[in-house]
Design a protein that fits this description.
Structural class: mainly alpha
Radius of gyration: 16 Å
């Protein structure tokens, strides 16, 4: 798929959806896991392009803004949006804006297309900006301190991100309890 195909597929799926709806999972866009699982397992070395993945996800689960439903597809579309707006690959923007300035040397996209012993190329490429990033523990601490400490987002954006719905989800963050203490972060299958 070329860039034009990526853009037309994403535009068709996300028509009428806002960035806030993508990040808060109120877009209604179907999740990619169910329709992709068998294909990802059948072709473990395949490298998927975002448009190929989005073309397989199926119809919307609900009208944008009318409900909540977690969808990894939202983050794939958000990654495509970053590329379209900046004109640069997502990995380059990640390095320029976040991992470089924060000196997150143990964080990035795996060079071989997958995570050895964790996530093969097929899974990593299909989930792309929703799950393909790799990091080490010290970088995760540095990232969490910077994000939740106000070094990445404006106070208003951070407050919006942490405005949790009834399911405990904000915009890219979940409310959680660890060791009896309240907090926030993001769990995940991948």
């Amino acid at each position: 798929c070329d860039v034009g195909d990526n853009e037309s597929v994403a535009e068709a799926i996300a028509h009428g959806v806002t960035v806030k709806q993508l990040l808060s999972h109120t877009s209604g866009i179907a999740d990619l896991l169910a329709p992709m699982r068998d294909r990802l397992n059948a072709e473990p070395r395949r490298i998927w392009q975002p448009a190929e993945v989005l073309a397989l996800i199926g119809p919307a689960a609900f009208a944008p803004g009318s409900s909540y439903g977690y969808s990894n597809s939202n983050y794939v579309i958000a990654g495509m949006l970053v590329e379209r707006v900046t004109g640069n690959p997502f990995a380059d923007e990640l390095e320029r804006r976040i991992t470089g300035p924060l000196k997150l040397l143990g964080t990035g996209f795996p060079e071989n297309g997958g995570h050895p012993n964790l996530l093969g190329p097929s899974w990593a490429s299909a989930f792309w900006t929703s799950a393909a990033l790799d990091s080490d523990a010290s970088d995760l601490v540095r990232w969490g301190d910077a994000l939740y400490g106000g070094d990445i987002l404006s106070p208003a954006s951070l407050a919006s991100m942490l405005d949790f719905n009834a399911d405990g989800y904000g915009m890219g963050a979940e409310r959680d309890t660890l060791g009896g203490l309240p907090g926030y972060g993001h769990s995940g299958l991948l």
